[in-house]
Amino acid sequence: MKESLPTPWNVYNLVHSPFFQQPLESGEQTPRPLSLFVGRARELKQLQAIIHGAGQNASVQAIAGAPGVGKTTLVKELKALAVASGYFATDSYVPILPGDTPEALFGRVLGVLYDTILANRSQTASNPAMADARVLVRATRLTSGGVSVSLPGLGGIGGSRSTSVIIPKDMMIDGPRVMRDLVRMVQGSDARGVLLHLNNLENLSESDATQAAETLRALRDVMLLHNGLHYVIVGTTDSVNLAVNTHAQIRSIVSTLLLPPLGADEVMQLLQARYNHLRVNPKTAAIAPVEPTAVAVLYDFFRGDLRGLLKALDDGVGLLIGLEETPARALTLAELRAVLQHRYQGELNALSEPARIEQLTKWGTTASGVAQTQASLGKLWKLSQGRVSTALGYLIRHGYVIAQSRKGAEPIQYVFSGASRLIFG
User: Fold this and answer.
1) Which helix (H) or strand (E) holds 316?
2) Which residue in 332, 17, 373, 54 sits closest to 183, CA to CA?
């Protein structure tokens, strides 16, 4: 690794904190290389099998799971394996945005498809299919609705005819043909296909996920079924369920993988891989900053939310580094829990809405370990259903409450996040 400035983590023989929450990256010289990926062998095998098994056909898969469970990092590893197997892929993903129209989403997908081909085979830039795509992609990125651009030669078979296209309304006129030509060009090359990543369902509201379902249905034939084009759609369990299972036309072409949390043993393997990678002196072992039993208990507190666990470890260890006579030792659960409880209680008290603090505290001091519904919280807080919904939305956004995946027609259940469980014990 490159030489770094000294940090408090050096006392553990670590360059910096091993508890980063960002997804891993491609390349060994990055601070978070994909070589640190641990576990998920079964899931990777399943995802790869569907892509490879499709042959020259298309495939669409969805990865669903709780926030922080590791979905994005899994897709990054899948894309790295796909590239090694002869497919085109990049680190980029296509966001599904609130209020998306079919034209807007199609334009972004076409843009990432173009970029992916160019990144993997730069010599294709002069290909006629790439030239047509470049015009549409430029128009999508540089103009907005109501602006006309001149598209030389687009829409015809060669020649110099110009067509005036209004973006994004007219994207669907030539876009599907351009996408088809791009994929045919890839199939005629040495590549096996293209893998694209659709993301951001995790950040959509229920109404936005429902709108995404309508958008995907509208794009089924013109975008999702091109031979040689493979999609992975990623989001929370509920958002994926709404987006891909609302309509039979989409459900029939999507294979959904429900991603469970990593096991406690796998989490320890993940941390050990990070400790080894981040050593200041590669000839000397790193010192684990936290006792394994403390990691296991905290992971249980966070209900398999790996991102939440890593943030808690970073918060706790970061405050305690060097404050003991023997600074380079693994911290215990009791030490971490006391610090985290104090820190998270302070953050809760600093919220801008005192009523929410009072509501969470009433829940935490009466039944912190019990799942609640909007109806039961209405009785506890003595609020109407609408006001309960508003309060829950605030507490969920600030990371104190988690809405569990809906089970059929049953009401949604709400539970404390790891931070709240640490506050209220």
Assistant:
1) helix 306-320
2) 54
The burial class, CB within 10 Å (0-12 / 13-18 / 19+), for 157 is exposed
Say if strands 401-403 and 414-416 run parallel, antiparallel, or are unpaired.
Answer: antiparallel
Domain CATH for 316 = 1.10.8
CB atoms within 10 A of CB 77: 20
Q: Are residues 142 and 231 in the same domain?
A: yes
Structure tokens at 347: 């953050």
Q: Is 418 helix (H, G, I), strand (E, B) or coil?
A: helix
Retrieve residue 305's tokens.
């939310």
Residues 339 and 374 in one domain: no
Work out the angle at residue 424's Cα, subtended by the Cα atoms of residues 421 and 425, and round it to the nearest 5 degrees.
70
Q: Which domain holds residue 392?
A: 352-424
Same domain, 154 and 56: yes
d(CA 173, CA 248): 25
Each residue's pLDDT, cut to its tens digit, for the chain (425 residues) gives: 456 788 999 999 999 999 999 888 877 777 788 888 998 999 999 999 999 999 999 999 999 998 889 999 999 999 999 999 999 999 999 999 998 999 999 999 999 999 999 999 999 999 999 999 999 998 888 865 434 444 444 544 444 444 444 455 678 889 999 999 999 999 999 999 999 999 987 778 888 999 999 999 999 999 999 999 999 999 999 899 999 999 999 999 999 999 999 999 999 999 999 999 999 999 999 999 999 999 999 999 998 899 999 999 999 999 998 787 777 889 999 999 999 999 999 999 999 999 999 999 999 998 877 899 999 999 999 999 999 999 999 999 999 999 888 787 889 999 999 999 999 97
Structurally, the chain folds into a number of domains equal to 3
**Of 121, 183, 188, 178, which is closest to residue 153 (Cα–Cα)?**
178
Kindly report, residue by residue over 162-176, the tens digit of the pLDDT.
444 445 567 888 999
Contact at 8 Å (CB) between 201 and 236? yes
Same domain, 419 and 289: no
Query: Please, are residues 346 and 419 in contact by the beta-carbon 8 Å criterion?
Result: no
Closest CA to 62 of 227, 184, 210, 238: 238
pTM listed for this prediction: 0.85
Whether residue 63 lies inside any domain: the answer is: yes
- Distance (Å, whole) CA 342 – CA 360: 16
Question: Do residues 216 and 248 share a domain?
Answer: yes
